[in-house]
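Following the same procedure, sequence and fold were stored together, as reproduced here.

>
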Amino acid sequence: MSIDGADEAGWDLDPQDESEAVVETIGHQLRVWREDAGLRPAEFAKAMGYTGDLIYKIERGARIPRPEYLDKADEVLGADGKIAAMKLDVARARYPKKVRDLTRWEAEAVEVGAYGSHNLHGLLQTEEYARALFEMRRPAYSQDEVERLVAARMDRRSIFDRTPAPALMFVQEEVTLRRPIGGTMVLRRQLEHLLAMGQMRNVEIQVMPTDREDHAGMGGRIQLLKFGDGSVVGHSQGQFGSRAISHPKEIRILELRYGIIRAQALTPRESLAFIEKLRGET
C-alpha cells in the first residue's frame, strides 16, 4: 500500500470499546520490535510505505492494524512470522462489540432459530448481498465501516463448518426473497446460495408467504440461541427492544411466538420449491 493510501492500513478504534486494551498491547509490541531493530519511526514508515502518522497511531493503540500491515511489518522487522501471527489477535478486535458478542454466542450455540422480516438473516447472506445492504445504509457508512461490517458478517459463516454441526433454523418473509438488494443478479446469486444452504442436513429454511392472514411475527425479527448447558439467549426487535434477553419468562414468550411463526410458514420442502420458483423468475 503506498503512502497515498496509508490510512487504509488501519481501522479506527472506538475509544469506548473494550478491545482497546488488546489493540494497545499489539501496538506496544510493534513498537518494541521496531526499536529492537534500531529503526526510528520515520525510517520504519519509509520502509513500510506508510505515513509516520499512521505508524504513530498504530503503536499507541489508536488504530487497528490491517492484516497486510502486520505482514509487511513482519517482513521489514525480520520477525519470522511472529508479528504476522498477531493477525489472529486483531481478527475480531476490528468488529463492533455487538458483532463480537453475537459471533461468540453463535460459535457456542447448539441451536439457532431466527425469523427475519426486513432482510435476509446475516448468516444466510452472500458477501455481495451484505455489501450492498451496508452500502445503502442512511446515514451512510464510510467505506472503512462497510469493509469492517462485511468482514464481520462473513466471519460469522464459520458456524456452518462446525463439528458437531448446530441446528440452524430460519424463517424469512417472502418480501426478503423478492427485494433486489444490489440488483437482479445479486439477488439471483443470493437465491442460489439459499438453495445450497437449504440442502445442508442441519439447516432448515422456511418462507412466510405475504398472503398469510394469521401471522405471529408482526412484532419484528426474532433470534433464539440455545447452548449445551440448556441456557438460552434471545433477541426480539419488538417487545423487548434491542437488548439481549435470557430471563426464562421472556424466553418462553419468544419460543412460543417463534414456534407459531414456524407453524404458519411454508414447510422447509415447500420453501425450497418456492425459492427455486423465484430464482426462475429472477
About this structure: The beta strands are 10-12, 63-65, 109-116, 167-173, 203-208, 222-227, 232-236. Confidence is low (pLDDT under 50) at residues 1-7. The longest helix spans residues 20-36. The radius of gyration is 22 Å.
